Amino acid sequence: MEVGFDACGITKAEELTVDAAYLKQWLEDGNNGDMHFLELNFEKRTDPRKLTPGCKSVVVVLLNYFPDKLQNPTAPQIAKYAYSSVDYHYVIKEKLKKLEQQITEKYGAEMVSPDYQHLFVDSAPVLERRWAQRAGLGWIGRNKMLIHEGLGSFVFIGVLLINEEAEYDNPTRNRCGNCSRCIDSCPTKALTDKGMNATRCISYLTIESKHEIEKEYHSKLSNCVLGCDICADVCPWNKKWSKPHMHNELATDNLQNNVNSFLDWNSDDWSELSEEKFNLEFKKSALKRAGFKQIKEVTRILNSQN
Ligand code: SF4
Ligand code: SF4
Predict the structure, then answer these.
(1) Is residue 228 within 6 Å of ligand 1 at its C-beta?
(2) Which ligand 2 atom sits closest to the C-alpha of 145?
(3) Residue 122 annotated to the active site
(4) Contact 57, 10 (CB under 8 A)
(5) Which of 154, 178, 186, 237 to mutate to test the pocket of ligand 2 (most atoms within 8 A of CB)?
(6) How far is the CA of 291 from the centre of ligand 2 (A)?
(7) Confidence of residue 254 (pLDDT cuts 50, 70, 90)
(8) Protein residue whose Cα sits closest to atom 1 of ligand 2
(9) Per-residue model confidence as pLDDT tens digits over 130-189
(10) Among residues 225, 227, 290, which one has the least CA distance to residue 76?
């Protein structure tokens, strides 16, 4: 694609009734923990026409982020989505704006709402994975990730709501079959046959939770210091399809400084990480969201388990 996304699909904007019922029960069961933002805007979350009045279609785009180089495997691990030196939210948003510009230049300014937000990256009440599945961009696996047929699940999802109907893509069918590798590999049992309890997930524990990580999880963190890719790494479809991305915007090295990339850091480098070095290395990175103190705390817990 001209804008530089790896895949694009389009589907009708309508109420997600099945997802609404599931989400309601999931929230009632307290599976969201401290992520109270998930309780807000319930109606808008399950029907984009309530979020952006006038929208008729959901354009969904994917950007592959599978890196060409992985971290030193003995060092504390951060999830691959956070490898890039620039936070992916900015990267996707810029690309979505370009896509919007191309659409409005070709079809007219009335294609998007001037009064309501219509571009989304992980930041608003939009069930991105479901829209991607409906737009033919993959299925939602037992690990709750979107799995694109050809790219796998290491993809960012962006959404653009437009005010016109279009020729829609066919939804992707689920290809998990009898596999349960993600469930079997989850160290904290956040994933079960019944779904996901986000409050047990290492991603939640190391990023979203407002509380100290409880002792019962200390030995289960599996050397993860920020986020967790275990249930994605074991997925056979990712082994088959994940290939390094070609996006310069998602490069890991921060060329503005002279610090060696964190990819090469060993355990001692992480243990001795100063706030100054953290701020230099991760100046614009998604790691900033967790913050220096949290990274240090999780590193301390990981060290205590060795
Ligand atoms: S990200 Fe890690 S902790 Fe969370 S469900 Fe997957 S394997 Fe389990
Ligand atoms: S590991 Fe198996 S069950 Fe889990 S998402 Fe991948 S294919 Fe589906």
Answers:
(1) yes
(2) 5
(3) yes
(4) yes
(5) 237
(6) 31
(7) low
(8) 235
(9) 999 999 999 999 999 999 999 999 999 999 999 999 999 999 999 999 999 999 999 999
(10) 225
Per the CB < 8 A criterion, the answer to whether 133 and 146 are in contact is yes
Residue partners of 146: CB distance under 8 A and separation at least 6? 62, 128, 129, 132, 133, 137, 138, 139, 140, 153, 155, 157
| Residue 19 main-chain phi, psi, to 5 deg | -65, -35
Determine the distance from the C-alpha atom of residue 121 to the mean position of all C-alpha atoms in its chain, rounded to a whole number: 9
Q: How far apart are CA 273 and CA 142, in angstroms?
A: 36
Element (H, E) at 17: helix 17-28
Residue 276 CA to ligand 1 centre (angstroms): 30
Residues 98, 213: Cα–Cα separation, whole Å: 41
**Is 134 a pocket residue for ligand 2 (Cβ < 6 Å)?**
no
Q: What is the DSSP letter of 118?
A: -
109: tokens are: 């300014």
Q: ∠ CA(146), CA(97), CA(41), 5° rounding?
A: 60
CB 64 within 8 A of CB 245: yes
> What's the 31 CA to ligand 1 centre distance in angstroms?
14
Secondary structure of residue 186 in the 3-state scheme: coil
> Which ligand neighbours the alpha carbon of 138 most closely?
2
Helix, strand or coil for residue 3? Answer: coil
Whole-number Å distance, alpha carbon 177 to ligand 2 midpoint, is: 8
